[in-house]
Amino acid sequence: MEDKIAKEIQRLKDDIFRRKKDIYDIEKLINKDIDKEFRVDLMELSEMEFESYIQEWFSKKYPKLEFDLKFITSHRKILGKPIVLIKRFILKLIEIYLNKIFKKQTHVNQQPLVLFQNSRQNKEIISQMLERFADSNKSLAIMIIKLKKTDI
């Protein structure tokens, strides 16, 4: 029975991710963002699903900035080439600078997700510790009962 439930849950998750991919393809087709997206409960995802979800999310949100320097042209005969060269050089410097800023910002944005992932792991560790504590609490209660019986 549990196996059937697990298979059904996995099938539903696969269906949701497939639909989400279809929406992303539609966004690319119409060159527009779609307002709504499927909300995913991150606590319900497995470790591998969580990693792929975060990787996909960041790759969509923070693409690397690259300027197309070929569009910079000039109609001036004498001054045109130096002006274009200077503009391309300045744009390349701006691109390098902005990509460094984006990289730092992406790192800052990833920190809450890392904390969330660690909290998921810590939740599992704490639940295991609570189970062990409950087991030792039961053992302690049994020992106390035995001691009380031997004293009487």
Number of strands: 0
Number of domains: 1
Given as residue ranges, the uncertain stretches (5+ residues, pLDDT < 50) are none
The assigned structural class equals mainly alpha
Work out the oligomeric state of the chains in this entry.
single chain
Largest sheet: none
* Apparent shape: elongated
Order of helices and strands: HHH
The whole-angstrom Rg is: 29 Å
Cα end-to-end separation: 49 Å
Mean pLDDT: 77
Q: Helix segment count?
A: 3
| Beta-strand proportion | under 5%
| Helical fraction | over 70%
Quick structural overview:
The chain has 152 residues and is mainly alpha-helical. It has helices at 2-30, 47-61, 80-151.
Protein architecture, described:
It is a single chain. The chain contains three helices and no strands. The protein has one domain (40-151). The chain has helices spanning 2-30, 47-61, 80-151. The protein has 152 residues and is mainly alpha-helical. The longest helix has 72 residues, at 80-151. The model has no long low-confidence stretch (mean pLDDT 77).
